[in-house]
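1st attempt posting a full record on here, be nice pls
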Amino acid sequence: MNMETINWDGMKVTSAGLYSGLPIEKYHSDICLGPSISSSGLRAIGNGSPASYWATSYLNPLAEPQEDKDHFRLGQAAHTLFLGEDNFRELFVVQPATYPGARGEAKWNGNANYCKDWKADQLEAGKRVLTADQMHTLQGMAGLLPWQVNCPNSGLKQCGEVMQGALDGDVERSLIWQDHATGVWLKARPDLLPAGSNSAVDLKTTRDADKAHNGIADLGYHMQAALVAEGMRQVMAIELEAFDFIFVQTSQPYTVRIISLSADQLAEGRRELRRAVNIFANCLEKNEWPTAHTLPVTWTPPLWHERKIENLVAANDLPDLGEVA
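the predicted structure (as tokens):
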């Protein structure tokens, strides 16, 4: 990289830059001088609707709290652990297997008062709780289980590209800038910016590595990559040349799959991204966050239903309504 990184000073961001030391919870909050949105919000708008974004947005004073679901917690733990961040133990804690019951050590019971109090203490301390099974899964995803030693591409440490440095570089830098067209603040946070390279890397967890290609389309990850590309262009004056997703499966055999986006795919993502940014700015101006498909439409039957009717007609098995009249 050829730009100096700004160490976040704890105040609101008032100028474009590449920021370090910005905690993820602050990144997703009211961190900028004006309303801001990141990839997750733009993808919620682009793939869903403005209402999908607004329901849990930090901008919404009546937003519904977001549940700390297992796959979100596991994904965040994987990012923190695998990308070499130093604060894993500050952010996560492993739930004990037993607790001191009335008759001595007992198997952990989430309904027991001791266990409830322990979990409440961890949450109050700002820590997210992982089970022993989840830690085992993280070890498998890392490629640290004993049986993985002779299993190439089973877990990150067994992946040839990772061994060659695919996950080396500057971690969790935040690109923040103001959109010239709309004035809204945009935020992008690539997992990794390789040193001396006009590229970016993002680590993803997946239930099925063989279906990772579908995940990019379903979850709009190409829009996320396009936002990083735009941020690098606006903040760093760099044209992104490559964007790689490193997917690691969350179950045995913990397969790693690396998928790169082409320049054409990034360009297509930019078009979808621009549409979502424009919608966000328009919703801010009107203070209206509609759901999708608000206008009445004519029913479009699914293909299977059309074929069913065609088969009934071909078999002369549909009554003539004139005969009924």
